[in-house]
Every structure is written in structure tokens, then in C-alpha cells.
């Protein structure tokens, strides 16, 4: 790898200023030494020194001769250039910054080049430091330079000193020894992520990310010189150089072909090893077939092979822009004319036994077709592409229009845009002209990524979304940054010609889907708030990713590719700044089952239930309804009382009382505004999509639980949102479909919890008059549906039943209605199955029974028995609670105890339920909640014997792991790696002109794990990961059976026709999942990963894992509905 020469003594550009601290490390960019100082400055490349040390004696003699010649040549100019030579950086030779490099003869070896650098006695100490003294303190470096200078002066006066020569030879031997060790380490390493690169625990990770983003912003804005100077300024100073990794240098390599050799020199000096990106950047430049180019390509490929990298790795792992792939292929074919890239698809092996049959059976199977033609899907793709290219979409608000007032006239966006645009341009001019130091990050490049008008639109959009009570500056800054980043990503994909490639890929995808063969606080000014309240705008502007997609999502095929067409989306949702999850995923070789499950969920098409939506909007605009969960407008909010705290007529107690009233009123107003805006956004989006067919792309959290990407409007929302969503594809009801609709309606009411399927069906038939009346006169009839637990979904089901029974043949009725099957306290089901707990399994419907079991009622009954016994003993609080212990009081605590709720949290839950009972004496709420939470935990411990033992084992294991300084990791049965991102919080202050923002960062991997969070979160997170695994397995096998399937965690949805099939698949996959030795495999994984840390302590817990898995597992249970059949 030899960089081309461009004359001698020329500069790459205008030199830039450096601080004195910088000058002690490295000269200015573009400067060279004196013309007569060095005759040749060959560039260095990493070569194994073991191949070069054939005759050490001859090398030492040659070195002596060179030193004598160089000393004689330098005598006339040494005094004038001694100061400049003494400014060389520790770890940096004079060749680093020279652009006027002469062409070297032959192929200079690294050891010869080092000797050439050492040939000047003034730079001997510098060359030695390059190999092994990078960590020496600054004062020691200065002392070495001083000693070197004194030694040089003595040599000038007395000639060549034999003793000095011997010392230099010893130094060179030590230097070669160190470099041998370093190069040997590089050569023997088979992993590309050596040294600093790729280290999860890198202490400089946040700074490295900031440096990368700054360089990319400069390059995207066309300011390559700024990027180059910034990189050099970071490279010069050792304290800043530690923040750099190979990826940082690769950014400059890809855009600066003429100086790529220089980048490799900097890379070597930083103690970093080239990776695939480095070799790709180098190879891409060579497209002509000259002899020199052939040699360079051959040498590069040879070095790749020594590093354990293959040419195929370049095509499999590098991300290409524009025609870079073609250029790389052209370069490789210069030396390998017959080469063809071989893509590694990793589809032949599957790590999880749970999905081997699924993929084996479907090896020659085709995708189930969507009910759309290929032409229709391609047209939908174009519409979705145009929405994402705009990055925002403006829709009509469903809120009733208010009259145009004088204030509304003042709220002219055009005027605001003009003022903000002028202010932005003035600020940019100031930033552009300001003399900021090269090594400091500057805001200016980030303000050049987009057009000025786009920044202004983002600001106006953010201001319009501010609540009257204000918003945290941290949240506002994050939203602004996310919007700029999204627009930047879209523009970058246009610039890289990704959009054109995406179009051709998606067209091929439609061929598979189509049915045919084709910190602070920012608060709006009160005047602005008043203007917005008096005259609300009739339009709402959203980011494009907020809206559902108009075409099927891009299938997930890798960690970084899937979901939206252009909008960047993470496969795994993480806290902003956390990277450990993504790094774990990228190391995984087989996530096909995860990808396919997310793709299946995202491919479900939806439409709007328009009649129901119109009813909801009418109530929304008619002051809302608390009973029906429709929030009222802010005009219904309580007025905030005003009083003068300095008024002497008020007593201290009256002032305190009025202050509490003000605080409560403000809190109520803020809550009402939040709820109102949330409902407005959901209903407006639904109204905008009322005539469309749309899709929800999916991703997952770090535990594997899946979520739709659009944040406001999706099927994971409230009762209102779920009620207005219907499947876009309809299916016949069939012989049992109408019965399932009726059973589903009874389930939505919350009645008949202990009744069998037949009992619920009979009850539904007895209330058919109420059902039909609700469908025909929802607002003016008997209003039976309003008393249901889920009133809006109950009303939608009433309408569907009415349409079905009034059709000529209900079995032939086409139904688009989703029927839900919900798990019976799903967390306890998993614990009971893990522990082979027969009693616990029976109480959560894992064992066959004549009637369904209700664990909440069972716990309430047991608590009541304990209460009655204590009341007889004369316990006062037990006597007060007589008649008040119900299923509703204990349900939330029972449900959440499996997910790690503490007694403190459980007490608060019960306290809230007791306060909702009007008849319960409020003075006993505190004592009663303390008493009940204790009894609930005791009852659960008796009912689920294995659950508490497993929880204790998981908790203690996590405590030991985190105490040893590590975070808890595990792998799900489907092969998804999981790591808990809980670390001790550190504060980071961001200084701005407005104010300083104090960020609390809890995901920093260099901080010790938060032991409390690690141990408390492990049991619920582990159960969540099993829950998501079962859902994904059910999703895949329902997909294989041709079912429409979506999920809300442990609640599964499908058509009424296919409920029985889905229940069967659901049972089978739960049995298959828990037939695996889950706890034993977890125990083995933890022992293997943390063996050297806590082996002796883990051994005692290992017994538990083996004990649970050795018990007999009854295979006739199933999970889904709260109904049990044999």
C-alpha cells in the first residue's frame, strides 16, 4: 500500500493554527522539515518483522554507516532546525505529516524505515516512544527530548561517539523487539475487533460517537478540509487520540482518495489495525490495470489474508454507496479476473430446535399471498416513499373548528418562518466566521446538513407541540435532534442512490407478496398559549414515521435494515446512546426466526371501523366522557386559583391550603392537556386513514417483546384505539365464527369469569336484545355496552354480531373483526410451567378442568379466609375489611408480583383500589393496604410454591453477577441475546448558551452495574423474554397455517373463523417451549459465562435448575383464553 507522491515539499492545504500544547506533540499539517534534512521519506506499512531479521549483524553495520552519513549531512542545518525537530510527537514520526513524499525505491521494510527515522539523533527518542512509550507522562517526554537535544549537540562537536552508537543500537534492538511483539499480536489475532476497536467497554465510547458524527456532518456538508483538520487535531494529542478508533479514520479514507496512504500511516501510529472498511476504502481507489496498481491490490489482499479477512467479507459486511460495490469488484478483478462474490446467507443451520421443523417443512414453500395485486403494492410503495421523503405529513384535525379570531390572524406561519429564517442565517454566519479551535466540536456543520427552511419548519413544529405547562429542555433538544437526524438520513440515502436500489428490491419483494404472479424547562409564552386555545389550528403536522405505512413494511433481513423505506429504525429499541444491545445482535449469526416473526406481524393489513370512529369523534367534540375514556377539552379543566402570598389577611394555614389547591389545579390541567392531545392525535390519524389500507412495521425491546413502530395509533393502544381497528382482509365466519364473536363479547364485558365456554355463549344468547339495541342506538338506546370493562370494543363487537345475524347466512358472512384470546395471568403460567407446579398450573388454566380457573378470584378467596381467621382473633383491621376484599382489589398486585413488584409497590396498588370504594372508611386505608399486601404475598406463596423459589434463584444469581462487576446476560430459546442495560448513573453536563443541561446516564458500560436494578429486574425480564419467545413461535406456526395473526404481548388476535386453529397452535408451542430444559440451559449459560467469577456460589443454585427440569411435565395443558377444555 504505497501512496502516490505529489512532488516535494508541497502542502495539502493551508496550514491551521495549533495551540502550544498541540505543537509539543506534532507540527502543523502541511509543514515539512528543512529541504536538506531528509533525503527520502518512504511511507510505512505494517509488515511482519520476523521475516526481515535474517542477519542482525549486517543490519547493525548498515545502521552505523547510515548514522555516520546522516550526521555529516545534517551538521550545517542542525542548529537552525533543532527546535522544529524537537517538536515531534510521542508516537508520531516526521513522515506522518509530510505530503511531499518522494517515491521509495523497491519495497522498503518497516524495520529499515524505522532505522531511517532513527538516523537523526534528534528524533531517536521520538521513534522509541512510537513503539512503546505512548503512555509516558508529558513531563517525561519533554525530558527525553531535552536529553536527546543535548546528546545531539555533543555529537556535533565531537563527531560520532562509539558509546552513543552502542546506546542507539540497544535502543533500536529494544524498539524492534517491541514492534515484533506488536505485529505478532496483530498477525495472530483472528478477530478484526482488536485493541480499542469494537470494545463494548470502551471508556471513550460517547466521545468516539460524537467524533464520528462530527466528521460525517462535515463531509456531508462538503467541508472536507474542516473534517481533515479536526481529525489531525484529535490525532496529534495523545489525550485525545485515545478517543479514536479505526472507524473514525475510515470515514476520511472513503472521501479522500489522494491521501488514503496518509490515513493508513495515522492509523498505524494510533496503534490501530485496519479493518474491512479500511481495506475497502483502499481497494476502491484502484480501477486501472497498471503494474503499480496490480502490486498495490495484491499486497492489500495479502495483508487482509494475514489479518484473517477474506474478499467475500468485503461484500458481505461492508455497506456500499452509489457505485462503490462495482468499483470494488472492478479493482479485485484486476488481479482475480474470475472472481465472483459469494454471499453468506446462513440459512442452512438453525440454532434453536424449536424452529428447525418450521423451516424444514417450509423449505420449498412460497410466501402466503396478500390480497393485493403486484401493481397495487408497487403503487402503495410509491405513495409511502413520497411520505417518507417529505419526512413530515400534515393532516386534518378532528377537533371541531373554532372561529377565526384576531389572534388567529397573528398566528401566521409565514411571518414566523421569515423571522426565524433570518435569525438562523445570522447565527450561521457568526458560527462560520468564528475562530474556533480545530480540535473542538462546532455546531456549524450540523446546521449545514439541511436547507435553512427545513430547520425552521422543525422549530415551528416543535413549538406547536409544546404543552401550555412547558416541556423539559432535554426532551425538546432530543426531539429537535431526532428530527434533524431523520431528515439527514433520508437526504443521505438520496445522495448515496439508496432510494433507486430500494425501489428495485421492493419490486422483487412485491412479487412474493402479491396475489397475482407479478434539562431545563422550555415553556411557551402565555400569549402564545392563549392564542392557541382561542383558535386551535385545523391542521396537525407529524413526522412521517408517526403514521402507519401505506405499503407492506420492508422485511427485516439484518440488524440495521427493515421496517420503513427510508426512515432509520432500530431492530431493538434501546435508550438513546446505549450500544451494547446492537453490538450483541451484530455478533449473532442466526436471527432468522426473530426477523420472520417481526415480518409476519408487520405484514398484517388493517383498516378503520368508520361507523365507530364517527361516534367517537362526535363525543370527543362534545366535551368528551370520562366514563367512556374520551378526555374532555381544556375548557373543562378546573380554574387555577390566584392569590397574593403577601396578603396579610391570609393565615399561614390558609396560604398553605391555597398553595396546595394551585398545585393540584395545575397538575390536573397538565394531565387533561396530555390526555386530550393524545386522543386528538390518535383520532386525527385514524380519520386521515379512514379510507386507506395500512400496515404497522414492528420492532422489539431488549427483552424481545414486540411493538408497532408508529407511536400514537396502533393496536397496542387503549380501548378506543383497538375498537376502531379491523383486519383489512375478511374471512367467512364459518360454522363456529358467530359463537366466537358472542363469547368474545362476553369476555369484553368482564362478566362470567368463572363460566365455561358454553355458559358464556348461553349468556350472550340471553342478552341479544341488548346487543342489537347497542348496535342500532349506541348513544340513544339502552346503552348496555357502556357498562362493559372495554366499552368501545364491546360496541364494535355488538355491531359485528348484528351485521352477522341479520345476513342471509351467518356462516357465509365476511368478517373483518379481530377476536382476542388473552392469557390467564401469563407470567404465573410461565413460572408454574418452569417449576412443574401442578397446583399453580391448575389455578392459571394449564391443567384441564371442567370450568376455567380464575387466579385472581382464588387469591381473593384465600385472603378472605385469612382475614376471617384474624377477625375472629380480634384483629381490628381484619374486622374493618369485612366485605371489601374482592377480585378487583387484589388483581393488579397478583398480576404484577410475577414481574417483580415489591411489597411497597403492591401496597400502593391496593391503597388505590381501596380509595376507589366509596363505602370504605378512608382513615383505615393505610393500615388496610399494609395488611392486605402481606396476605396477598402469603397466599401467592402457598399457591405457587415453585414460583418464589425460582424468583429467589434468579434474583440471587443476578446479585452475584452484578457484584462481580458484570451485567446479566442470557439467550432466549430462539437464540436472541439479551443484556440488562442497568448501570450506575453518572451525570454529564452539556453546556449551552441558554443554560447547562445535566444528563443522567444509566447505560454507560464503563460504569459498574446497578446491583439493585440488576437483581430486581432479572426475574421479570427473564419471564418477559419467555413470553416473547412463545408469541414468536405462535406467530411463525400460525403463519405456516395460513392464519392472520397479531399480538398484544400475551393477547393474540385472529379472525373468528380461525380461533380454534390459533388456540391449538398456541397450546402446542407452549408445550414445545417448556419441553426444553430452560432453567438448566440458563444455569449452564451463566456458569459458562461467569465461571471464573462466582463458580463456588453458583454451584448451590445450579441444583435448583436441574431439580425443576427433572420433574414430570404434564403435556395436556395449554395457554391462551381463560377457558379450559380437555
From TrEMBL:
Region (Disordered): 1-112, 128-164
Keyword Transferase in annotation: yes
Domain of life: Eukaryota
Biased composition (Low complexity): 128-139
Gene Ontology terms: biological process: mitochondrial transcription
Ranges in a coiled coil: none
UniProt biased composition (Polar residues): 29-40, 76-101
Presence of keyword Glycoprotein: no
PROSITE patterns, alphabetized: RNA_POL_PHAGE_1 (PS00900), RNA_POL_PHAGE_2 (PS00489)
Catalytic activities: RNA(n) + a ribonucleoside 5'-triphosphate = RNA(n+1) + diphosphate
Family annotation (SUPFAM superfamilies): DNA/RNA polymerases
EC number: 2.7.7.6
Any one of the GO CC terms: mitochondrial DNA-directed RNA polymerase complex
InterPro entries associated with the record: DNA-dir_Rpol_C_phage-type (IPR046950), DNA-dir_Rpol_phage-type (IPR002092), DNA/RNA_pol_sf (IPR043502), RNA_POL_N_sf (IPR037159), RPOL_N (IPR029262)
PANTHER family the record matches: DNA-DIRECTED RNA POLYMERASE, MITOCHONDRIAL (PTHR10102:SF0)
Protein name per UniProt: DNA-directed RNA polymerase
Organism: Oreochromis niloticus (Nile tilapia)
Taxonomy of the source species: Eukaryota, Metazoa, Chordata, Craniata, Vertebrata
Amino acid at each position: 500500500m504505497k501512496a502516490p507522491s505529489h512532488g516535494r515539499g508541497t502542502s495539502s492545504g493551508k496550514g491551521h493554527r495549533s495551540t502550544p500544547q498541540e505543537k509539543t506533540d506534532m507540527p502543523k499539517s502541511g509543514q515539512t522539515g528543512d529541504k536538506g534534512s531528509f533525503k527520502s521519506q518512504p511511507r510505512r506499512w505494517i509488515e511482519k518483522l520476523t521475516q526481515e531479521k535474517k542477519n542482525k549483524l549486517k543490519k547493525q553495520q548498515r545502521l552505523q554507516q547510515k548514522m555516520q552519513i546522516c550526521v555529516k549531512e545534517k551538521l550545517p542545518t542542525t542548529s537552525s532546525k533543532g527546535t522544529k525537530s524537537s517538536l515531534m510527537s510521542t508516537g508520531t514520526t516526521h513522515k506522518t505529516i509530510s505530503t511531499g513524499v518522494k517515491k521509495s525505491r523497491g519495497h522498503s521494510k518497516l524495520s529499515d524505515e524505522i532505522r531511517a527515522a532513527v538516523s537523526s539523533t534528534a528524533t531517536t527518542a521520538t521513534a522509541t516512544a512510537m513503539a512503546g512509550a505512548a503512555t509516558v507522562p508529558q513531563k517525561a517526554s519533554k525530558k527525553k527530548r531535552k536529553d536527546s537535544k543535548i546528546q545531539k549537540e555533543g555529537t556535533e562537536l565531537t563527531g560520532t561517539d562509539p558509546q552513543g552508537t552502542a546506546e542507539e543500537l540497544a535502543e533500536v534492538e529494544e524498539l524492534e523487539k517491541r514492534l515484533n511483539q506488536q505485529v505478532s499480536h496483530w498477525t495472530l489475532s483472528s478477530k478484526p475487533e482488536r485493541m480499542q476497536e469494537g470494545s463494548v467497554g470502551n471508556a471513550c465510547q460517547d466521545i468516539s460517537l460524537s467524533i464520528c458524527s462530527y466528521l460525517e456532518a462535515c463531509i456531508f456538508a462538503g467541508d472536507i478540509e474542516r473534517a481533515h483538520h479536526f481529525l489531525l487535531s484529535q490525532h496529534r494529542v495523545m489525550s485525545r487520540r485515545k478517543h479514536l478508533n479505526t472507524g473514525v479514520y475510515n470515514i476520511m479514507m472513503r472521501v479522500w482518495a489522494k491521501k488514503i496512504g496518509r490515513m493508513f500511516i495515522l492509523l498505524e501510529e494510533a496503534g490501530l489495525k485496519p479493518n474491512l472498511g479500511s481495506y475497502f476504502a483502499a481497494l476502491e481507489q484502484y480501477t486501472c490495470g497498471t503494474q503499480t496498481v496490480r502490486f498495490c491490490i495484491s499486497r492489500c489482499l495479502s495483508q487482509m489474508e494475514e489479518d484473517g479477512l477474506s474478499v467475500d467479507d468485503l461484500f458481505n459486511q461492508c455497506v456500499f454507496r452509489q457505485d462503490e460495490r462495482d468499483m470494488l469488484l472492478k479493482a479485485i478483478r484486476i488481479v482475480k479476473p474470475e472472481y465472483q462474490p459469494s454471499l453468506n446467507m446462513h440459512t442452512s443451520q438453525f440454532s434453536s430446535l424449536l424452529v428447525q421443523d418450521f423451516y424444514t417443512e417450509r423449505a420449498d414453500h412460497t410466501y402466503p399471498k396478500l390480497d393485493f395485486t403486484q401493481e397495487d403494492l408497487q403503487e402503495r410503495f410509491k405513495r409511502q416513499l413520497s411520505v417518507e421523503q417529505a419526512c413530515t405529513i400534515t393532516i386534518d384535525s378532528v377537533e371541531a373548528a373554532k372561529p377565526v379570531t384576531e389572534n388567529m390572524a397573528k398566528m401566521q406561519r409565514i411571518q414566523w418562518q421569515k423571522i426565524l429564517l433570518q435569525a438562523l442565517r445570522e447565527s450561521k454566519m457568526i458560527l462560520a466566521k468564528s475562530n474556533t479551535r480545530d480540535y473542538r466540536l462546532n455546531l456549524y456543520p450540523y446546521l449545514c446538513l439541511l436547507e435553512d427552511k427545513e430547520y425552521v419548519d422543525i422549530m415551528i413544529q416543535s413549538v406547536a407541540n409544546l404543552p401550555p405547562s412547558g416541556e423539559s429542555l432535554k426532551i425538546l433538544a432530543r426531539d429537535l435532534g431526532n428530527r434533524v437526524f431523520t431528515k439527514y438520513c433520508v437526504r443521505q440515502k438520496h445522495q448515496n442512490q439508496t432510494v433507486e436500489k430500494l425501489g428495485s428490491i421492493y419490486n422483487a419483494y412485491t412479487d412474493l407478496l402479491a396475489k397475482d404472479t407479478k434539562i431545563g424547562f422550555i415553556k411557551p409564552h402565555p400569549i402564545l398559549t392563549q392564542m392557541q386555545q382561542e383558535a386551535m389550528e385545523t391542521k396537525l403536522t407529524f413526522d412521517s414515521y408517526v403514521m402507519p405505512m401505506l405499503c407492506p413494511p420492508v422485511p427485516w433481513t439484518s440488524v440495521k435494515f427493515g421496517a420503513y423505506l427510508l426512515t432509520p429504525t432500530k431492530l431493538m429499541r434501546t435508550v438513546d446512546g446505549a450500544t451494547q444491545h446492537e453490538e450483541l445482535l451484530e455478533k449473532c449469526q442466526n436471527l432468522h426466526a426473530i426477523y420472520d416473526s417481526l415480518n409476519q406481524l408487520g405484514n398484517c393489513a388493517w383498516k378503520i371501523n368508520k361507523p365507530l370512529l364517527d361516534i367517537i369523534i362526535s363525543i370527543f367534540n362534545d366535551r368528551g366522557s370520562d366514563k367512556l375514556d374520551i378526555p374532555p377539552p381544556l375548557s373543562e379543566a378546573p380554574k387555577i386559583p390566584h392569590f397574593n402570598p403577601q396578603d396579610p389577611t391570609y393565615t399561614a394555614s390558609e396560604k398553605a391550603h391555597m398553595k396546595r389547591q394551585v398545585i393540584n389545579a395545575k397538575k390536573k390541567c397538565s394531565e387533561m392537556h396530555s390526555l386530550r392531545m393524545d386522543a386528538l392525535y390518535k383520532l386525527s390519524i385514524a380519520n386521515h386513514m379512514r379510507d386507506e389500507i395500512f400496515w404497522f412495521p414492528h420492532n422489539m425491546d431488549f427483552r424481545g417483546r414486540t411493538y408497532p413502530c408508529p407511536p400514537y395509533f396502533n393496536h397496542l393502544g387503549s380501548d378506543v384505539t383497538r375498537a376502531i381497528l379491523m383486519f383489512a382482509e375478511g374471512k367467512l365466519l364459518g360454522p363456529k365464527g358467530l359463537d366466537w364473536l358472542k363469547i368474545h363479547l362476553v369476555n369484553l364485558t368482564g362478566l362470567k369469569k368463572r363460566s365455561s365456554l358454553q355458559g358464556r355463549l348461553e349468556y350472550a344468547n340471553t342478552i341479544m336484545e341488548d346487543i342489537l339495541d347497542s348496535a342500532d342506538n349506541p348513544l340513544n338506546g339502552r346503552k348496555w355496552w357502556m357498562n362493559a370493562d372495554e366499552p368501545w370494543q364491546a360496541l364494535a363487537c355488538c355491531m359485528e354480531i348484528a351485521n352477522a345475524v341479520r345476513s342471509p347466512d351467518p356462516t357465509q358472512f365476511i368478517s373483518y373483526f379481530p377476536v382476542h384470546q388473552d392469557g390467564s395471568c401469563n407470567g404465573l403460567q410461565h413460572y408454574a410451567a418452569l417449576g412443574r407446579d401442578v397446583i399453580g398450573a391448575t389455578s392459571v388454566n394449564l391443567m384441564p378442568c371442567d370450568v376455567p380457573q380464575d387466579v385472581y378470584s382464588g387469591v381473593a378467596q384465600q385472603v378472605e379466609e385469612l382475614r376471617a381467621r384474624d377477625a375472629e382473633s380480634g384483629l381490628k383491621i381484619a374486622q374493618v375489611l369485612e366485605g371489601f376484599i374482592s377480585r378487583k382489589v387484589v388483581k393488579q398486585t397478583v398480576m404484577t408480583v410475577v414481574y417483580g413488584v415489591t411489597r411497597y409497590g403492591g401496597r400502593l396498588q391496593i391503597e388505590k383500589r381501596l380509595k376507589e370504594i366509596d363505602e370504605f372508611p378512608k382513615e383505615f386505608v393505610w393500615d388496610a393496604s399494609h395488611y392486605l399486601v402481606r396476605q396477598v404475598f402469603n397466599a401467592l406463596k402457598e399457591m405457587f410454591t415453585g414460583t418464589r423459589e425460582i424468583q429467589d434463584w434468579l434474583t440471587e444469581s443476578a446479585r452475584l453477577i452484578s457484584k462481580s462487576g458484570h451485567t446479566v446476560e442470557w439467550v432466549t430459546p430462539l437464540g436472541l441475546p439479551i443484556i440488562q442495560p442497568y448501570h450506575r448513573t453518572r451525570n454529564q453536563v452539556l453546556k449551552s448558551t441558554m443554560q447547562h443541561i445535566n444528563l443522567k446516564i444509566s447505560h454507560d458500560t464503563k460504569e459498574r452495574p446497578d446491583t439493585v436494578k440488576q437483581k430486581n429486574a432479572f426475574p421479570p425480564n427473564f419471564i418477559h423474554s419467555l413470553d416473547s419467545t412463545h408469541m414468536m413461535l405462535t406467530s411463525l406456526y400460525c403463519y405456516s397455517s395460513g392464519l392472520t395473526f397479531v399480538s398484544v404481548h400475551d393477547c393474540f388476535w385472529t379472525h373468528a373463523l380461525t380461533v380454534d386453529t390459533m388456540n391449538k397452535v398456541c397450546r402446542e408451542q407452549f408445550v414445545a417451549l417448556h419441553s426444553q430444559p430452560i432453567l438448566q440451559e440458563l444455569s449452564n449459560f451463566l456458569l459458562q459465562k461467569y465461571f471464573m467469577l462466582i463458580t463456588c456460589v453458583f454451584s448451590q443454585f445450579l441444583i435448583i435448575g436441574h431439580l425443576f427440569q427433572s420433574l414430570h411435565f404434564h403435556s395436556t395443558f395449554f395457554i391462551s383464553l381463560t377457558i379450559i377444555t380437555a
